[in-house]
Design a protein that fits this description.
Structural class: alpha+beta
Strand content: 25-35%
Number of domains: 2
Radius of gyration: 19 Å
Distance between the termini: 30 Å
CATH architecture of the largest domain: 2-Layer Sandwich
Helix content: 25-40%
Largest sheet: 3 strands, antiparallel
Low-confidence stretches: none
CATH superfamily of the largest domain: K homology (KH) domain
Shape: elongated
Length: 136
């Protein structure tokens, strides 16, 4: 099994930053949560990750077939399960470009189902925590 590492740092306050490859992703908590709201909260990035992953598959479907993408838009609608205090349903609402051929409706839907973020949620990995002593 190969491993991918995300390095997390704690630059101060409620900020928690993650380095993924060459990119630094900054997060913060809301003012209500004790932060400065200087960056998205980690959960916001989680939702953005799901939506943008489905979006890249929809875009790729169109581009590979030279289909129009002007006016295409995607919303992720998240419905909360009040008992669990979690989202119980997430719906991708894809606005198709004007004149999008009906014969491709099923295909673009199937392509969005290939989203790897969604696949990881549906077949969740095992999580564990390992504590390591500080380096001298």
């Amino acid at each position: 099994m190969s491993a991918e590492i995300v390095e997390v740092t704690f630059p101060g306050g409620k900020r928690v930053d993650a380095r993924v490859g060459k990119f630094l992703i900054e997060t913060d908590q809301s003012v209500k949560g004790g932060g400065n709201a200087s960056a998205p909260e980690p959960f916001d990035l989680f939702l953005a990750s799901i939506a943008s992953c489905a979006g890249i598959f929809a875009l790729g479907f169109c581009q590979s077939r030279n289909l129009p993408t002007e006016g295409m838009a995607l919303n992720l609608v998240c419905e909360r399960d009040e008992k669990k205090k979690l989202f119980g349903k997430m719906t991708f609402q894809l606005t198709l470009p004007h004149g999008f051929p009906e014969k491709y409706h099923n295909g673009i839907t199937r392509s969005m189902e290939l989203c790897s973020v969604k696949k990881h949620m549906m077949d969740a990995p095992e999580f564990s925590v390992e504590l390591q002593p500080a380096r001298a």
